[in-house]
Design brief:
EC number: 3.6.1.9
Number of helices: 13
Protein name: Nucleoside triphosphate pyrophosphohydrolase
Enzyme class: hydrolase
Distance between the termini: 58 Å
Strand content: under 5%
InterPro entries: MazG-like_dom, NTP-PPase_MazG-like_C, NTP-PPase_MazG-like_N, NTP_PyrPHydrolase_MazG, PRib-ATP_PPHydrolase-like
GO molecular function: nucleoside triphosphate diphosphatase activity
CATH superfamily of the domain at 2-103: MazG-like
């Protein structure tokens, strides 16, 4: 029956769960898979989530299908290890998230009125989450914001939590003033500060930038990914144009590369 399930392409999630159990079998499984634990697999989970986001950003739907499968495998991997240790199972994880979605959408699955604005639904969602945190003995406004999140994303979540209890600048103008202040402090003191102090001041500047993004309705992680993609696209075009001249960046001057960059940027703006 086990071999039949492994090769049954119509078996759905049960097939994948069985494959993982086989890979983790201490007697007949894969040596690499057997050695893994939550800590060793966690970085792969984060990487796969970013690859999903990358496929979406590039609108590559065929690739997205594969990346979603890779991400699903991460959930299966963690739940297999959880089941082995007696912590939880795939079914209990599915039950927990299903229960959570039902509880957090009383306007869909309960008796509450569905005729609400998106803003009111968001406020209700946050109220439900706050009640859940209280039930977990999370008393502080910042409790439960995962330490392992990417730094910019965690900064954004910390700021949102603080804003809910009134700790926030009332306008974007004040955030911009703080941004100028932090930038000036870093520039003025860069020659007198220690490396640790420079890192601290630079962190303050990035934190304010994340806050500015929140006030502007911009996701700083998404904005930086977009800029990374733009930089990559333009620099690769610089390399291509240099190659047409029989040159590389290493054999070119900064002025030459900067001129090509400006031409590429102008051409992109003309097409927009």
């Amino acid at each position: 029956m086990g071999d039949d399930l492994i090769h049954d392409q119509d078996a759905g999630i049960e097939r994948l769960l069985h494959i993982m159990r086989c890979l983790r079998d201490p007697d007949t499984g894969c040596p690499w898979d057997i050695e893994q634990d939550f800590d060793s697999i966690a970085p792969y989970t984060i990487e796969e989530a970013y690859e999903v986001a990358d496929a979406i950003q590039r609108r590559n739907w065929a690739e997205l299908e594969g990346e979603l499968g890779d991400l699903l495998l991460q959930t299966v991997y963690h739940t297999a290890m959880g089941e082995e240790a007696g912590h939880f199972s795939f079914q209990s994880v599915v039950q927990a998230i299903s229960d959570k979605m039902v509880a957090r959408h009383p306007h869909v699955f309960g008796d509450e009125n569905r005729d609400k604005s998106a803003a009111q639904q968001t406020a209700d969602w946050e109220a439900i989450k706050a009640a859940e945190r209280a039930g977990k003995a999370q008393k502080g406004a910042l409790d439960g914001v995962a330490i392992g999140l990417p730094a910019l994303l965690r900064a954004l979540k910390l700021q949102k939590r603080a804003a809910r209890v009134g700790f926030d600048w009332p306008s974007t103008t004040q955030v911009l003033d703080k941004l100028r202040e932090e930038a000036a402090e870093l520039v003025e003191a860069q020659n007198t500060l220690s490396a640790d102090e420079i890192e601290d001041e630079f962190g303050d500047l990035l934190f304010v930038m994340a806050n500015l993004g929140r006030h502007l309705g911009v996701d700083p992680e998404a904005a930086l990914r977009r800029t990374n993609a733009k930089f990559t696209r333009r620099f690769e075009e610089v390399e291509a144009r240099l190659a047409a001249r029989g040159k590389t960046p290493a054999t070119s001057t900064l002025e030459e590369m900067d001129a090509l960059w400006s031409d590429i940027k102008a051409a992109e703006h003309a097409r927009a």
